[in-house]
Each structure stands twice: as C-alpha cells, then as structure tokens.
Write a structure and sequence with these properties.
The chain is mainly β. The protein has a domain of 86 residues: OB fold (Dihydrolipoamide Acetyltransferase, E2P), CATH 2.40.50.140. A five-stranded antiparallel β-sheet has the order 3-2-1-4-7.
C-alpha cells in the first residue's frame, strides 16, 4: 500500500483504534544534530532523548531545506519509536522522525507547540 503525501489525496483506508495504538509515537528533545553528507538525499543525523524509558535514539531525517543542525538542538520533535531500525549507509536510524511536506515537498517537522515530557506518547 502506497500512501500519498499530496494534501488533496483521499484518506488512507480505515483502521481500528488498536492498529493506531500499535504505532508508538513519542516526544523527544534533539540533543545532537549533524549533517549527513554520505546520505543519497541531503539529510541530518539526529540524536533524540526520549527520557529514561526509551533513552537516546538516533534518526536520519531529510530536513536540510528548512533546518540547520544548530537550530535543531534543544527542539522537541515527534517520532515513531517502535519501527525496526533502518540501515542508511553506515548509519543506523532507530526511530522515524515525523514531519509534513511543504508546498515543494520539503519536510517541516511535527512537534508539540508547548514543552512536554520527553517520552510522552501521542494519543
């Protein structure tokens, strides 16, 4: 199943609430960020602190159009923390950092508009 990133695409097929609960989306704070020049598409390596229950996890995210590594440190983001790790070159991405596409398809981060506890789960 391919889901469209287009804003006018119809919704994905219906799921039940238990399927939603199976996707563990948590808030975390970026504690380190650096450019990832080895990636096929421009990306930034992130280290995100999800609190003591999950710890610090790393992620590769294609954020270079709107973000510099220095402005990401200290920012809270949302990520899926229960997908299997994904090898990207020599880097192991452990979580999927979430965002929405802007009008040109570049990633705009999804994050809480007020500070929340690291590890807080989306509901």
């Amino acid at each position: 199943m391919h889901l469209s990133h287009e804003p006018n695409a119809p919704p994905a097929p219906q799921i039940d609430f238990n399927q939603f609960l199976a996707v563990d989306i948590r808030a975390g704070t970026v504690v380190a960020a650096q450019l990832f020049p080895e990636a096929r598409k421009p990306a930034i390596k992130l280290k995100i602190d999800f609190g003591p229950g999950i710890g610090v996890k790393q992620s590769s995210a294609q954020l270079t159009r709107h973000y510099e590594p220095a402005i990401l440190v200290g920012r809270q983001v949302a990520a899926v923390v229960n997908f299997p790790p994904r090898q990207i070159g020599k880097f192991m991405s452990e979580v999927l950092t979430l965002g929405f596409p802007d009008e040109s398809g570049a990633v705009v981060l999804f994050s809480p508009d007020q500070a929340v506890q690291n590890g807080a789960r989306l509901f």
